[in-house]
Amino acid sequence: MRIAGLEKCSTVDFPGGLAAVLFAPGCNYRCFYCHNRQILGNPPLLDEAEVFRFLKKRAGLLDAVVFSGGEPALQSGLADCIREVRALGYKVKLDTNGSRPEVLRSLLSENLLDYAAMDYKAPFGDYPSITGQDASGVAESLSLLLAGRIPFELRTTVVPMLTETKLKEMAAAVPHNVKWFLQLYRPQQGDEAFLGSLHPYSQGKIETLAEKLQEVRPLVRAR
Predict the structure, then answer these.
(1) I need a labelling partner for 62 at 20 to 30 A (CA). Which of 23, 54, 135, 180 fits?
(2) How far is the C-alpha of 118 from the C-alpha of 96, rounded, in Å?
(3) Are 133 and 27 in contact (CB under 8 A)?
(4) How many helices (H) and strands (E) does the chain have?
(5) CA 43 to CA 104: how far, in whole Å?
(6) What is the mean pLDDT of residues 138-162?
(7) Which pLDDT tens digit goes with each residue over 23-52?
(8) How many CB atoms lie within 10 A of CB 146?
(9) Cα separation values, 36 from 95, 128, 190, Å
């Protein structure tokens, strides 16, 4: 598997445990606010054998390995890499944009995942303007997670284009018992061309939006 980055110890990426995070390069989306945009092209890669030497040393000290990106589901070697990680005794979490339900289905059928986090970018009809692609596969991926036996969460980076009305539209499209996190958007250099006259939400505003959505979807939280 191609690995473009390694976070050696994270306290926030795997619920209730310490995790290493592996970042896969490349993505089929082009969200202007991507915080890992430096690995979307052809970044330098880490030596996979060296990464696994590190994971072997930390086995028993870390609880889990998170496969993030980019979009890890685009990697042909993902399943094999997860099997190797699980053989070391780690739990596994997948971060995904949900566009490859066939990959998610295969991983779930083999019981290779312990947790998943799926991006919920926008109302499905707004995906082209936000990601550069349609929402093909995302609803199916959500259905697979709903039917599966692993815990999961949805997460939305609340860019200014996502108004309260649009967030309510998004809420109406998911079941009431889904854990859903609204995340603060942090502008980066160059984002001005996409924002125009729009201004990023404050953390307080994100919390207010979450509280309003809790009236119909009680598991929505601000992050």
Answers:
(1) 180
(2) 5
(3) no
(4) 8, 8
(5) 25
(6) 96
(7) 999 999 999 999 999 999 899 999 999 999
(8) 12
(9) 13, 20, 14
Q: What superfamily does domain 1-141 belong to in CATH?
A: Aldolase class I (3.20.20.70)
What does the H/E/C string look like for 21-42? Answer: EEEECCCCCCCCCCCCHHHCCC
Three-class SS state of 195: helix
- Please give the structure tokens belonging to residue 94: 């997948």
Complete edge-to-edge strand list for the sheet that includes strand 220-222: 5-14, 17-24, 64-69, 91-96, 115-119, 152-158, 180-184, 220-222
Average pLDDT, the chain: 97
- Rounded to whole angstroms, what are the CA distances from 182 to 13, 143, 162, 170, 179? 15, 20, 11, 12, 10
- The total of other beta-carbon atoms located within 10 Å of residue 221's CB is 18
Residue written as tokens 């054998």?
49
pLDDT at 148 over 90: no
Helix 101-109 × helix 78-87 angle, to 10° = 30
84-114 burial: b if 16+ Cβ within 10 Å, else e: bbbeeebbbbbbbbbbbbebbbebbeeebbb
Query: For residue 150, what are its two tokens?
Result: 């692993």
Non-local CB neighbours of 32 within 8 Å, separated by 6+ positions? 191, 194
> 128: which strand partners?
none
- What does pTM read for this prediction? 0.96
Predicted confidence (pLDDT) per residue in 172-183, tens digit = 999 999 999 999
Structure token digits, residue 135 = 């929402």
